[in-house]
């Protein structure tokens, strides 16, 4: 799925495909653009990227949303598996540094709603029935058949 294909989709379908709302996606694009512009030393040098920033974000979201392998994503976008890994790590790092995409911590969540009940589930081990060992299911093989013939 490329940005050119999904940018005109209705909001519900966009969210179903990407896992985030269009507004959040556009905020992510904005955060990446700002970071890249601040980091850039020369605006016009170098080979132009094969994927636009929106497509790079879609690569990351596809990896997390669909649990596809990096090799499959690379085949979809026409890039190598290692490049997919680099894109995912790069986008992650940029979005982690931006404060808009931080989730509240455990303490903050407890402060917001003190009426949370704790549910404990006993997950003790239970015995598993295994077949009994007996000699009925074993076919004896003669030693002669396992030796290599010498000539």
Structure in words:
The chain has helices at 3-6, 11-18, 22-39, 53-66, 70-77, 81-97, 106-112, 143-146. Helix 4 (53-66) packs across helix 6 (81-97). The protein is an all-alpha fold and 151 residues long. The protein has a domain at 11-37 and 51-102. 11% of the residues are buried. The radius of gyration is 27 Å and the shape is extended. The chain is built from eight helices and no strands.
Q: What overall geometry do the principal axes of the alpha carbons give?
A: extended
Strand content: under 5%
What's the Cα radius of gyration?
Answer: 27 Å
Low-confidence stretches: none
Task: Report the order of strands and helices.
Answer: HHHHHHHH
**Could you describe the largest sheet, including whether it forms a barrel?**
none
Mean pLDDT: 83
How far apart the termini lie comes to 65 Å
The number of E-state strands comes to: 0
Distinct helical segment count: 8
Descriptive tags:
151 residues, mainly alpha, 8 helices, 53% helix, 0% strand
What does this entry show, briefly?
By secondary structure, the chain is mainly α. It has helices spanning about 5, 10-20, 20-40, 55-65, 70-75, 80-95, 105-110, 145.
Produce the secondary structure layout.
Layout: H1 3-6, H2 11-18, H3 22-39, H4 53-66, H5 70-77, H6 81-97, H7 106-112, H8 143-146
Helix pairs in contact: 4-6, 5-6
